[in-house]
Amino acid sequence: MSKKKKKLQENQVEAAGAVDPRIDEAMAKIVQDTIGNDTVYDQPKKKKNRKAAKASGQKSKMKKKKSKNTALKVTGIVAGVVILLAGAAYGVGAYYYHDKFFKGTEINGINCENMTVEETEDLIRRQVEDYKITVQFRGDQAQEILGSDIGYQYVSNGDAEKILKEQNPLLWIRGYFKPEKYEAAKNISFDENQLRTKLDSLDCMIAENQEAPQDAYVTFQETEFVIVDEVQGTTIDENTMFEALKTAVSESRPDVSAEEAGAYAAPSVTKDNQDLIAQRDMLNTYAKASITYTFGEQTELLDGSIIKDWFDYDENGNIIENEDTFKANAKEYVKSLAAKYDTVGKERSFHSTAAGADITVKGGSYGWKINQKKEVAQLIEEIKAGTVTTREPIYSSTAVSRDGNEIGNTYVEVDLGNQHMWFYKDGQLIVDSDFVSGNMSYKDRVTPSGVYSLYYKQRDKTLRGKKNPDGTYEYESPVKYWMPFNGGVGLHDASWRSNFGGNIYKTSGSHGCINLPRSKAQVLYENIEKDVPIVCFY
Hints:
Blueprint: H1 3-18, H2 23-35, H3 43-56, H4 61-96, E1 106-107, E2 110-111, H5 117-128, E3 132-137, E4 141-146, E5 153-154, H6 159-165, E6 181-182, E7 188-189, H7 192-201, E8 217-221, E9 224-228, H8 238-250, E10 255-257, H9 274-288, E11 290-295, E12 298-302, H10 304-307, E13 312-313, E14 319-320, H11 323-341, E15 348-352, E16 357-361, E17 369-370, H12 372-384, E18 388-391, E19 395-397, E20 411-415, E21 420-425, E22 428-434, E23 450-453, E24 458-464, E25 476-486, E26 489-493, H13 504-508, E27 514-516, H14 518-527, E28 533-537
Parallel strand pairs: 1-6, 3-10, 11-18, 20-28, 26-27
Antiparallel strand pairs: 1-2, 3-4, 5-7, 8-9, 11-12, 13-14, 15-16, 17-19, 20-21, 21-22, 23-28, 24-25, 25-26
Helix pairs in contact: 2-4, 11-12
């Protein structure tokens, strides 16, 4: 045997010993496939010869020895042939795999067994360039972008060739027992401008198809204020989405999620916002308030169903807190109560003693009048505290009752046309008298008609007119019994007069007061009280 052939066999044996022990199995299969099943170990024939020997009797020892030597010689020849054939087959395999990948080789999940680098890269290229990516949007909407639409293509970087070079062809049989999987860098390229254009063309990226996010807000429902949950919407930030998509494509990922990329515009206020919760709780305190106003037999209920409308709301029903608006609505509400229930200056039907019939009297300061400023302040305070109460409003002026003409049966009747006065107390006439009222010749001295009430009563009062430049007064008139009811106009005694009634008032009347004889003024003074109605009419 030549040295070259001997060296080849040593290398083959050394290589065979380096692989998995199961190689023996594979070698047996290779030999079997190479020389067939009938060449090695002729067992059936030996069995037949023994049967024949037994049938014919014993053979001579010489014949047996000769037969044995012959069998050994054949066996040796066959074994040598087998070794030569197996070595040749193994060498053929090693040569075959010097430019191909072993059996069981996968690169990036692609089966590359028995393929050259060029074939492998061509297969990778075909699979890569079939690439598509699914863009996931809210509402289970998914849209695809094809690699062919964005110039997506494979660019070899030599990884496949590097893997092949690291593969020892003498170990080709390992592939039958130990498949190898490799991950190679996928060098790809694509057109970013085409990618952005394709992204912008997707239905979910078109502005008119997007729903803007909505903040959580407080609104009134049925009997209370509640928080309406935020709406996430589908408005997408184009730049954020594009960057996420570009990264996914460059990594050859099969999909990308707009949600996971954080591309959606988010509501700025959610249902868990503490300021929103505090607002709801505050408003529900307001809504619990219940103020029942009483106006005689009539009532007005103010509760949450009305208070809810004292806030500003946007077009989506979201409450806009505005203290000025709230106060303005409270003022408007109190103003509406005053318009409905104030009676100061309104017409009243009054039974005239002189005429014996009902007459109509209007004007004056007598009657019910809500103090709107104080009532608004009180009302807002009660609403913010969630107060439940029944009460009258705060008045700046009141009448003796809400019944009929509200005058009752204790009053002073001043008939300016007849210049006569009557004072009724609990329906009984206490005193009546002629008087002299304001001088009709001077417009600023005429005693006005209307219904008024007594401010107070005072003894020994000096009545004074306008103050002159020199410090003196236009007039000074001391009186014993002073009973004012309309600014500076009042009932009082007039000791400087000797006559009362008739037509004196037309040309020689007072500065507007009702001048009475002292005795009559005294009786009136002793029986009248503050707030008694005083009805003046012509």
